[in-house]
Amino acid sequence: MRMNSEEARKQVWEGLRKYGKPDSRFHWDFAEFIADYEGSDKGAEIIRQQPEYQNATVLFITPDNNMRKLREYAFQDNKVVIMTTYGIRRGFQVIRPGIVPEGKEEVASTLDGIEDYLSPITLQEIKDEFDYIELLFTGGSAMTPEGLRFGKGHGYFDLEWAMLWEMKIVNSDSIVYGLGHDCQIVDADIEPSVFDTLVDYIVTPTSITKTERVLEKPTCGIIWDMLEYGMFDNIPPLQELYKIKNG
């Protein structure tokens, strides 16, 4: 029998207690942050070997703890990196090739170190300068083999996808990678919501696997009346998008 969401979450949290790394702000509260874990560098190396990564020029990488090594590689490989700040409170940011000095990539890849190299960028500016994002990378508290991410709440990546979709910066051909530890992949019986952005590939320290995704990526954009309380007031790109769509 497949687990329900609570059973799956409990199993994942127990696994992360063994393999995960605490966060300086949230400690072991895995419902509040995407944890780094033993072997995350190996997952990043797997991605670095993929032709899709090697050929891409623009990457969206979430500000998750387990993305540190991937960000370091992206700086070394002269990729354009677009990301958001925690909770999207300061909107989208860009790190262009050459901004991070040679030899500083490791420091710049940390969530504190990267602050010295971020440049704010609006949704319209992303569209005008880059037009299209080929690859997106996100962490997940827990993921199913079908590519559904769950466990953390808030749904910031789903919101980021929706905003980029509305601006036609991503489309159904954009590839989404979900990164996590092997213990975070669980066979749980969870019904996806209309806005859940299922990932195309799951990358762990030991493998890359094409998901058994049966649903298309969301095309609904922002569902304004489903936003959590305070999101519109605290997330500048939502305000920008609303003005663009409503004049």
Automatic annotation (TrEMBL):
UniProt cross-references to Pfam families, sorted A to Z: 5-FTHF_cyc-lig
A molecular function GO annotation: 5-formyltetrahydrofolate cyclo-ligase activity
Keywords annotated in UniProt: Ligase
Class of this enzyme: ligase
Keyword Secreted on entry: no
InterPro entries: FTHF_cligase, FTHF_cligase-like_sf, NagB/RpiA_transferase-like
Source species, domain of life: Bacteria
EC code: 6.3.3.2
Descriptive protein name: 5-formyltetrahydrofolate cyclo-ligase
